[in-house]
Amino acid sequence: MVKTRRRLMIDGEDEAATGDEYFDELIASKQSDGIQVKPTNDYGKGVYADMDFKEGDLVLKDQMLVGMQHSSNKIDCLVCGCCFSFIGSIEIQIGRKLYLQGLGSPKDVCFNEKSELLMHEKLELPYSKKFPLPGVINCPGGCKEVYYCSKSCAQADWEFSHSLLCTGEGSKSLSQKALSKFIQHANETNDIFLLAAKAISCTILKYRKLKTTCDKEKDKKKNHISDVLGNRNFSLLLKSWKPLLMGYKRRWWDCIALPDDVDVSDEDSFRMQIKQLAFESLELLKAAILDEECLPLFSLEIYGHIIGMFELNNLDLVVATPVEDYFLYIDDLPEAEKKEINEITQPFLDALGEDYSVCCQGTAFFPLQSCMNHSCCPNAKAFKRDEDRDGQATILACKPIKRGEEITISYIDEELELEERRALLADYGFICKCPRCVEEEA
């Protein structure tokens, strides 16, 4: 018998029944009774209102499937590696940022010492207790790169993906050295590779958990034919891959926008360079976490489609900093009291400069939000309210939405002119035919 290499399905558009079941379960689990995911005439699937929404109503709060804080933002903000809430204290947030930024620079030695005291909470700022934050929990694997707001978040992230991507002594990766090389390559080229690694790691760990459960249920049946076991294992891998299967995908090197400084005549060369970059990243990831039973996940085709899915569907991950709230509170104090307090706080505010209000910034894939189609005259938008202090996607109605109407958002700046909008949307592989575009084209 000739064995053929089995390939994971890349896109879920042809799995209509499975997709309907998956999204129905997802909506039920989030108690989002006001929406439905169902097929559209032009764009595969879309999100539809299952009730009337008024302008400003909350349409959806969607928990991310995978997300990450940008590497460059980690100096500015100390947040939970699972839910992305700010952690520690106002003192830790300010002191850590100033201390890390001051390393190696000719800043005032005395001020650096004060920053270090803040970072270790040995110096208390006035009124900081009015802005309490969860304590800092270390990574279970012992790495010094990821921290958490609680033991439950630490355990959830460990079981979800971090156990394979931890660089600490407790890591379950094949090689910490290889993993460090992969992370370094991603930080030097494009940190979207780190998100792809999370997606693959969570699929592997989910597969292993399903397989362990299945083995326990069938441990009395010893005489399985190897090919039957192989089919079962591949079926379990497909089940683990399912959440990623449902996202719209194109290969990263095909869908990434052509930079302004690259001439159209050099486009083919540029896309080959991007493909080569993905290949180099994948080879480093293989050396770090390859699981032979999950080999289909490590094909360049799958890797390219995972990154492409993020490129086309991700939302910016933004969580407002409590440091901004703290300094605004100080600024609103009565003048006499503020003058006294400013003698302590103003030097730190001056040192932070405009960076005092820098938010946690990253990128994340949200399974339900990613099903929302684009319109240049959308009826909903991603918007963080004052109470939204975590990494969930918050979608609000920006105009009244009737039951049965499709809920749309804008993938781009809808204030641009028609040709500019179409140029940007070309990267998504479609020409917008929303009422505004049709009217402007006419």
UniProtKB/TrEMBL annotation:
What keyword terms does UniProt attach to this protein?
Answer: Metal-binding, Zinc, Zinc-finger
Gene3D superfamilies for this protein? 6.10.140.2220, SET domain
| Domain MYND-type: start-end pairs | 107-166
Task: Outline the extent of the SET domain.
Answer: 33-412
Gene Ontology molecular-function annotations: methyltransferase activity; zinc ion binding
User: Does the keyword section mention Ribonucleoprotein?
Assistant: no
What InterPro entries does the record point to? ATXR2-like (IPR044237), SET_dom (IPR001214), SET_dom_sf (IPR046341), Znf_MYND (IPR002893)
Sorted alphabetically, which PROSITE patterns does this protein's record hold? Answer: SET (PS50280), ZF_MYND_2 (PS50865)
PANTHER family reported for this sequence: HISTONE-LYSINE N-METHYLTRANSFERASE ATXR2, SET DOMAIN-CONTAINING PROTEIN
Protein name stated in the entry: SET domain-containing protein
Organism the protein comes from: Mikania micrantha
